[in-house]
Amino acid sequence: MIAFFIILFGLIIGSFLNVVIYRFPRGESIAFPASHCPHCEYQIKPWENIPVLSYLFLGGKCSSCKAPIASRYPLVEALTAFVFYLSFLKFGLTWDLLVFALFGALLIAIAFIDIDHMIIPDSMIIIGLIPGFYLWLSGEGQPLNSHLFGFMGLGLSFWVIRKVGTLAFKKEAMGLGDVKFAAMAGWVLSWDIGLLSMFLAFLSATLLFTVLIPMGVIDRKQKIPFGPFLCIGIWLGLMWGREIIDWYLNAFFVM
Ligand SMILES: [Zn+2]
């Protein structure tokens, strides 16, 4: 029963994320005006704005002009609900759940904004620092040094990758946004899980490229933002980083 409400809450937050992803980078107000069809300006009725269900109900079309509604919208809603549900399984009904489910939602917003606009807004990175302060003040995190070291270490590593990559490829190899985002991740996750997250980010990018480039889905020359992979890595690290590190140490360093 609680799980049902968590999923419902996730769907509603996901619906809100769609608005944020669309309006925030365009500098539009998040609250006003009410949602409208980008095609015909038709103002969407409340019952047409129910996460996932309305999309299915309307057959993926605007009820006024029949223009297709991007499948991205129900996808973001379902993804957010899924992240909330898994967070509930991990954290139970705790403050951790609230903080880290919303952190997951922030990662989803960052990933899709980076896909659309190739930017990671500074203000979102600053909001993303909050869970680190939460861990520090609640005493649940690792020693403060580990978090600070994560912040400096990952930020500096990505800054070096950016510098070297730019020299090697003679074009911007990695955005400054990725550097700040990596530093944020190090602060929240502390240095060891932060490092693992960055590894998982590069791994997921590599996996995607080895599958999608031969399939012709993406072009080798296409500019792909790295932010979404960072989001995947950070989230996996947040959820299972400790388990992955323990497993690794046990598997390779304990007789
Ligand atoms: Zn329309």
Strand-helix topology:
Blueprint: H1 2-23, H2 53-57, H3 72-91, H4 95-117, H5 122-127, H6 130-138, H7 144-169, H8 176-215, H9 227-253
Helix pairs in contact: 1-3, 1-4, 3-4, 4-9, 6-8, 7-8, 8-9
The structure holds zinc ion.
The site of zinc ion (ZN) has 8 residues, from loops.
Description:
The chain is an all-alpha fold and 255 residues long. The protein folds into two domains: 1-93, no CATH class; 120-255, no CATH class. It is 70% helix and 0% strand. It contains nine helices and no strands. It has helices at residues 2-23, 53-57, 72-91, 95-117, 122-127, 130-138, 144-169, 176-215, 227-253. The model has no long low-confidence stretch (mean pLDDT 92). The chain binds zinc ion. Zinc ion (ZN) binds at residues 37, 39-40, 42, 62, 64-65, 67.
Profile the largest sheet: none
What's the number of extended β-strand segments? 0
Number of helices: 9
Helix fraction, binned, reads 55-70%
Judging from the principal axes of the Cα atoms, what is the shape? Answer: globular
Query: Could you tell me the radius of gyration in angstroms?
Result: 20 Å
* Stretches with pLDDT under 50, minimum 5 residues: none
Strand content: under 5%
